[in-house]
Write the structure tokens for this entry.
Amino acid sequence: MPVKKRTSQNILLSTALENFYGAAEEMGLDDDLVEILSRPERSLCVSLPVTMDDGSIRVFEGYRVQYSTALGPAKGGFRYHPNVDLEECEALGSLMTWKCSLAGIPYGGGKGGISCDPSELSMPEKERLTRTFAARVAPIVGEWTDIPAPDVNTGAQEMVWFMDTISKMRGRLEPGIVTGKPVSIWGSRGRNAATGVGVATCVMELLKTEGVDVKGARVIIQGFGNVGSHAALTMVKSGAKIVGVSDVTGGYYAPGGIDIRKAVEHVNANPKKTLEGFKGPGLNKIDGDDILTQETDVLAPCALEGAVNAKNAANIKARYIVEGANGPVTPEADEIVGEKGIMVVPDFLANSGGVIGSYFEWVQNLNGFFWTEEEYNHRLIPIMTDNFYRVWNYSREYGEKMRRAAFLVAIKRVADAVKMRGTFL
Ligand code: NAD
């Protein structure tokens, strides 16, 4: 029977499916595996009646999709956003499946969320909503079945409410049921910096393998939040020269290099937590978008999706782009920079330090024994390095771009697991 290809009106899901079918065809994946891997294993839709502060009851819609558990428990965040629906969760769950596979951790992929505008909810309303969601998805989540995490508009507080609700329902503490908890409540030291440390590891290995001396190599980082600032701090420790940074307040460019520790101190001391007003030797304040097209060896977009796009791609002067953010290079821009010979390290490899960090939190929760930040990084960096070379080697061997190579490596690992585990009965 020929494969019956799925289609969707949802742009995220149709793109995810198209990419999957394209890769599956290229790698000659068996039709039955294509059928299996183009569908989620399990999807749960829940209705969530919540008592609002004024005494009225509103019913919200929530979702949890376990896209694949072939490699281990489903892993992926849950988000609060008006656009959340089942198909979006399916698409994001499939991306988590490939990301966890590529990261080499024993997890499948999933995603969930609630269709709501969290800016309209008070804290007590958010708490009741989160606890109702936890109770409704309780039958399918667990530390060996499905482990949620923070995502858009959810964070440490929502994770603690989720864990607390399930623990009370089950009559025993279930710390490993979610990751992204605060350090004081079964969270992990090192998690905060993990994604940036991972991005920096990819940059440094890339430079080494390309024969570029890391000492003095020029790097520009767009976005100076969690990912960008930790990536910058880690890179300067190895001798790289950060010549440009940017955030919502604009671009800061200094061809001679920026004192990153001072930049971080400035942001921490600024009540708005931005670079606004930051000054230094040879530092020029420029337009935020112009930072992307300055002279540099590496450009690491660590802010928003679509930062490098059809409008500015032709003007990028970097030799390498390492995607710290999710989807910062659009497909059109990817073609343009590819033609210019610029190599792109894709997001689901470069920013996978975050999900590897979640895995470390879960491992510590299962053991009830916590690591120091040094121990954490001591384990994170070798895994990131291995993953980088797995993709790099595939890309060299088969003449594929890094993005395609990463996708093929990731799909193959899941497909092999499905094949080996077989169908039930
Ligand atoms: P953050 O909110 O801590 O920081 C975002 C930074 O981007 C801020 O400095 C902000 O000022 C800046 N910014 C916003 N708009 C900008 C613009 N137009 N130009 C330049 N800078 C701009 O967020 P984060 O946690 O660092 O996440 C950044 C990206 O990385 C997102 O795409 C996120 O999905 C992705 N990501 C984050 C993690 C993680 O662990 N934090 C993991 C994987 C992927």
Observations:
- Residues 195, 222-228, 246-248, 274, 288, 302-304, 324-326, 351, 354 surround nicotinamide-adenine-dinucleotide (CB under 6 Å).
- Residues 81 and 306 are 19 Å apart (CA to CA).
- Residues 373-398 form the longest helix (26 residues).
- The two ends are 21 Å apart (CA to CA).
